[in-house]
Design brief:
By secondary structure, this protein is α+β, with helices and mostly antiparallel strands. It has 2 domains: 166 residues, Beta-lactamase; 133 residues, DD-peptidase/beta-lactamase superfamily (Beta-lactamase, 3-Layer(aba) Sandwich), CATH 3.40.710. It is built from 14 helices and 10 strands. The strands form 3 sheets. Strands 2-1-10-9-8 form a 5-stranded antiparallel sheet, with helices on both faces. It has a 3-stranded antiparallel sheet with strand order 3-5-4. A two-stranded antiparallel ribbon has the order 6-7. Helix 1 packs antiparallel against helix 14, helix 5 crosses helix 9 and helix 8 crosses helix 9. The two termini are 23 Å apart. Bound molecules: glutamic acid. The site of glutamic acid has 11 residues, from loops.
């Protein structure tokens, strides 16, 4: 057994035994009903070896992790012009904050808070029907994971639409400042649906490989983005990927990552591995409680922090 395999196995066992789980998100019934006792981990190294453990083959809602893929697509579509509509600074505010948007005249702080991700979705939507834009996002995720079986959970998307009053407020606010080009309902429809993509740790770790490997997906031999763009997306994940818990995550884990309220975290160890952990119980900032602890343990034992061993 390789060192990575034994570390992943140890972590899966240690996490299973822990009594502290955090609190599952409760804003929609589909998340409130998820068993907080689950924990999964999958690591794909640079050579394509996979080390996985726990509930690594159980599907979960990727939620805000989808924002990494939509950012990649939007940059591919409009390049650096994207930065006229969304900033690149950490927010220090909760993921759905409205106050900051008002102070900054409708320009969201970064592409990973809700307002920023809605603006990014609007960029992908321009020139298309919502169905086409959504199809493009789903195809991209399937292509990256090299897995056509990945789907959107329609019941979750419908729940998000029913309860997404705050996101609607953010979107209307941006529309008032001319930051959104498309009808608010269209943009939000696409946003709610891409948050409802369901994937396993293993599928998501495969999809994240291009960020760990300078923009290449070695499984398919495809260049997804230029090395420089991969590096920049990673920089944004490091500084903004965990909402107002981003500084703490960088301090404790030391790797670029993006979390979602479904309890997943996609993390990149540049040149080394793409890593996904999932445990539905969240901490106060909305990031997976056990997921963060598992990643802290993994980077320590593997010496993978970007800040040194
Ligand atoms: N669909 C969720 C929302 O927009 C995603 C939140 C998240 O994962 O942070 O509220």
């Amino acid at each position: 057994m390789s060192k990575l395999e034994s570390v992943v196995k140890e972590i899966a066992e240690e996490m299973r035994a822990r009594p502290d789980r955090g609190e599952v998100a409760t804003y929609i019934p589909e998340l409130a009903g998820v068993d907080a006792g689950q924990f999964g981990i999958a690591v794909v190294d640079a050579a394509g070896n996979v080390a996985a453990g726990g509930d690594c083959d159980t599907s979960f809602l990727i939620q805000s992790i989808s924002k990494v893929f939509t950012l990649t697509l939007a940059l591919g579509k409009v390049g650096d012009r994207l930065w006229k509509r969304v900033g690149r600074e950490p927010s220090g505010s909760p993921f759905n904050s409205i106050v900051q948007l008002e102070n900054e005249r409708g320009i969201p702080r970064n592409p990973f808070i809700n307002a920023g991700a809605i603006a990014v979705t609007d960029v992908i939507l321009s020139g298309h029907q919502p169905r086409e834009a959504l199809g493009e996002i789903l195809q991209f995720v399937r292509f990256l994971a090299d897995d056509p079986s990945i789907v959107i959970d329609e019941a979750v998307a419908a729940s998000e639409q029913r309860t997404g009053f705050r996101n609607r407020a953010l979107a209307n606010y941006m529309k008032a400042f001319g930051v959104l080009e498309n009808p608010v309902d269209y943009t939000l429809g696409v946003y709610f649906h891409h948050c409802a993509i369901a994937m396993t740790c293993r599928q998501l770790a495969m999809a994240g490989r291009f960020l760990a490997l300078s923009g290449m997906n070695p499984a398919t031999g495809h260049r997804i983005v230029h090395a420089e763009r991969a590096r920049r997306i990673n920089a944004l994940m490091l500084t903004c990927g965990h909402y107002d818990g981003s500084g703490e995550f960088a301090y404790l884990v030391g790797l670029p990552g993006k979390s979602g309220v479904g309890g997943g975290i996609l993390v990149v160890a540049p040149g080394k591995a793409s890593i996904v952990v999932w445990s539905p119980g969240l901490d106060v900032s909305g990031n997976s409680h056990l997921g963060r602890i598992a990643l802290e343990t993994l980077t320590k034992r593997m010496g993978w922090s970007v800040f040194g061993a």
